Amino acid sequence: MKELKDQLLTTENLNVFIVDWGAGARNLYGQSVQNIRVVGRVIARFMQFLNTQTGANFARMHLIGHSLGAHIAGYAGAFQPGIGRITGLDAAGPNFSGNDPACRLDPTDAIFVDAIHTDAEVLGLGIVQPVGHMDFYPNGGKEQPGCPATVGDVILDPMEVSCSHSRVLQLFTDSLNSSQCQFISYPCRSWDDFVDGKCNDCGLMGCPRMGYWADLSLASGSFYLRTGQGSPFCKV
């Protein structure tokens, strides 16, 4: 997160607040899931404090959350309506897939909700289903280039089990430098259709970009693209 914070401050004139909820995330996964609602409530109250004490506009606030943090951002937006944007970075899948939208990140949590899926598969750590106005699936949303592709690979190097799940942080950080990296994506029904070349037309409005510069005015739905295996990841 430090790299993302540094790049945000380099790119834009803004204030960045990082939420450390480590004490609530060190429990067993099930308990951590139960804790996120409380964390979301605390963040909502902090945003209300900023609004009343400094006049900070809710519509100009942008929450960015990775894994369980994406759903925390969703709860914060539900507790405080009118947040400008929430970005879900590979929102956690276990205990959330197929759930009522009120219990996970969903498009009603902010004026604009965008999500990037990088580990969305059966045994992955990310959620498969769309959770935002714009959902981006780089490389089909799973098995990111350079990450282990098989169970055997993970057994040989257990530390790599979260490689695809963590890749989303690098992709979003890269996206901030628009002069170096533009993640052009294409609307498509599925990754297979994208691979088959059936989705290469974005219409008169142009193709949307994945990441920090995503623009809801261009389109909504699911979008696909390829990335490389090293930074800058937009270079395939």
TrEMBL record:
GO terms for biological process: lipid catabolic process. Residues 3-233 form the Lipase domain. It is found in: Secreted. GO terms for cellular component: extracellular space. Keywords: Secreted. CDD domains: Pancreat_lipase_like. InterPro entries: AB_hydrolase_fold, Lipase, Lipase_N, TAG_lipase. GO terms for molecular function: lipase activity. Signal peptide: none annotated. PANTHER family: LIPASE, LIPASE MEMBER H-A-LIKE PROTEIN. Belongs to the AB hydrolase superfamily. Lipase family. This is Lipase member H-like. It comes from Acanthaster planci. The gene is LOC110987308.
